[in-house]
Amino acid sequence: MGPFLCSALARRAQAVQPKAVSLMDVKEILVAVASSGLATWINTTRGAFAVVEALHVIAIVTVFGTILIVDLRLLGWPTTTRRLTAVAGETLGWTWAAFGLAATTGSLLFTTNPVFYFGNFEFRTKMVLLLLAGVNMAVFEFYTIKTVALWDIDKSPPASAKLAGTLSLVLWLSVITFGRLIGFAASAMQDPFATL
Amino acid sequence: MQSFANWLVDTAPSIALAKSSWVVPAMQTTHIVAIAILFASVLMVGLRVMGWAGRDETLGATVERFCPWFWGSLAILAMTGMILIVAEPPRQLLAISFWLKMSTLAIAIAIAVLFLRSIDRNAAYWEGAARPRTKVFGIVTFCVWCLVVFLGRFIAFDEQIWGRFSALH
Fold first, then answer.
1. What's this model's pTM, rounded to 2 decimal places?
2. What residues in B contact A69, CB-CB < 8 Å?
3. Domain parsing of chain A, residue ranges
């Protein structure tokens, strides 16, 4: 969430003073975040980073695991014997709660090294993928779901629903992959995308 | 364990895996995806036990729906986990967090097996309205799996977490 906020702030500043704003201002914000009390606390308290990261993992696995249930139901696999609206109704509340925890813990992790994360290829890719997952969900919620009464149960969902489920699966798997790769880039030991 | 880790790290498979730049990230990512499947299965069955989800079907039907995912993801976790041990023996085998995770995992699996046996034998007890005891059971099970995830992530921070108690200190 951090870089979006930062770029949003930077854009707003740009609107007021078009000439004065440059990448330097973003960097100043990032440096300010890095020296904030919160960042210092996480960076210097023994085990704090590990606990926040573990909570981030708990949140991510809940987000992906519950979304996977809905995605597979959208694909009509393995069955369509339960109402899609019932399946989504009992899982998506947990998805959102877990996403809130993932965003919060993710922002906390971001504060510990904002200059690095902001410039990191894997991190930026993950943020773009998250945005795309959001767009996919919005399209589904505003258009595709409108006809759900026709295919809620015992019917193969329409191609648009199957597409939404497939895109969601691919995007969230990619989010997890790039999220994990950030850790390897951070340790700079073996970065598969170092040459990119 | 120190000598076993030292022996393992010099074996051909371990050297080959350590040299690869993609095996460890790929196995870790697959491991996380499998945790997600297992965790969601535990969560949904737990919610059904507590009467918070899936009340349009029996607990037996919910369990039947999630069982293949639970055991399937556990098998993938065991495989990717073993590959990660071979790739980085000292990092895993000398970490206190690793052994605490394995112990907690054994408890979590034992709970799952006992639960499955119990719903086979006492379907009537479990199928009725959720009782305080079954609710406590659901919450405890969820917390034990959370602890497994916590300890798993702590492997990467073993020395920081356990200080001088860590063999990696």
1. 0.90
2. 40, 44
3. 2-187
